């Protein structure tokens, strides 16, 4: 699946980058805390998840101001600015109602926008969101995290990755931490994190008129499930679906269950596990496994250490959800070429 990118300008002159993939009715995706349209498309787990969302829909994503490919705004992040950015993206899609999905920080933003634009939303999906940011953690923990992100973005991104995605393999968590740092500088990351802590959409939820699905994982380590329940309770007629799991990121953990709930609510067929996407190096290693090479032989062929080859094979096995080298070889023969 290809991704098409473009630019749109908000009413106050901030240039935002957006991307589209798939075809059909628009599904406008309001992402979480940090994002990068190009780099997220290169993360195998996230791309598999996004492509599954885009089957049967035209998935429209954007980088919020100051992150990814978008320009920085002149003022500090605010809920009002977030709503204005979402409006700019939706306006270019035409007058017809659209489906909207908000994830993490994007959930209260999407809910606020839906409350202000009831005639523009066909269906609303909120995942991993909250109504009151002050309920995310105690004040001391919030201040500690803000200080850590602002003073030591490297360590801060590592800590947040462990909270957001405990189900990812260690190598993938390290990649995710690097990804967060590439999305935004420390000060922007800190300001957006602070915005999440101070958001309060409780007074807006009653104005959401569209059919709404709220999904939350029971053991979410970043956002208590009670906040998902609060979102659903505040929106008239909202349906609440609680899924097992502890990862906050939608593409970590049992992604298939989440995708199935979302797609069925949108009137689409349920989803299977997203197709595994390997990095170019992993594709190469899988091919050498299919040739019958041992880890030592793979290391020699690629000019790397044997333990590095072993690590590649293990990550391939985890990503494909298989148990043996023979299954890796079978995957390569049937799908990997």
From TrEMBL:
PANTHER family: BIFUNCTIONAL LIPASE_ADENYLATE CYCLASE LIPJ, HYDROLASE, ALPHA/BETA FOLD FAMILY PROTEIN
Residue span(s) of domain HTH luxR-type: 271-336
GO molecular function, one term: hydrolase activity
Name of this protein: Alpha/beta fold hydrolase
Pfam families per UniProt: Abhydrolase_1 (PF00561), GerE (PF00196)
SMART domains: HTH_LUXR (SM00421)
Organism: Protaetiibacter mangrovi
UniProt cross-references to CDD domains, sorted A to Z: LuxR_C_like
SUPFAM superfamilies the record matches: alpha/beta-Hydrolases, C-terminal effector domain of the bipartite response regulators
UniProt keyword terms in alphabetical order: Hydrolase
């Amino acid at each position: 699946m290809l991704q098409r990118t473009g630019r749109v300008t908000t009413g106050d002159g901030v240039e935002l980058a957006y991307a589209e993939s798939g075809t059909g009715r628009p599904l406008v995706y309001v992402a979480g805390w940090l994002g990068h349209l190009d780099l997220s498309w290169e993360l195998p787990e996230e791309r598999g998840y996004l492509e599954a969302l885009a089957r049967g829909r035209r998935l429209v994503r954007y980088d919020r101001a100051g992150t990814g490919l978008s320009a920085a705004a002149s003022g500090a992040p605010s809920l009002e600015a977030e709503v204005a950015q979402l409006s700019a993206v939706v306006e270019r899609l035409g007058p017809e109602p659209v489906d909207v999905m908000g994830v993490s920080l994007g959930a209260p933003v999407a809910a606020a926008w839906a409350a202000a634009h009831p005639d523009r939303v066909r269906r609303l999906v909120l995942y991993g969101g909250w109504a009151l940011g002050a309920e995310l953690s105690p004040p001391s923990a919030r201040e500690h995290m803000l200080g850590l992100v602002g003073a030591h973005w490297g360590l801060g991104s590592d800590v947040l990755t462990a909270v957001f995605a405990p189900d990812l393999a260690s190598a993938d968590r390290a990649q995710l931490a690097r990804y967060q740092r590439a999305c935004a500088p420390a000060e922007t990351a800190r300001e957006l994190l602070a915005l999440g802590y101070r958001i309060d959409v409780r007074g807006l939820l009653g104005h959401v008129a569209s059919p709404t699905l709220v999904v939350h994982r029971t053991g979410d380590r970043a956002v208590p499930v009670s906040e998902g329940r609060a979102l659903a309770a505040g929106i008239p007629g909202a349906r609440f679906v609680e899924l097992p799991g502890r990862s906050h990121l939608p593409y970590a953990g049992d992604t298939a269950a989440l995708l199935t709930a979302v797609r069925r609510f949108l009137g689409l067929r349920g989803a299977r596990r997203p197709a595994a996407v390997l990095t170019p190096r992993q594709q190469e290693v899988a091919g050498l496994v299919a040739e019958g090479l041992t880890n030592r032989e793979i290391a020699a062929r690629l000019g790397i250490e044997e333990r590095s080859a072993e690590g590649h094979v293990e990550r391939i096995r985890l990503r494909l959800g298989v148990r043996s080298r023979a299954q890796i070889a079978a995957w390569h023969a049937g799908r990997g070429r």
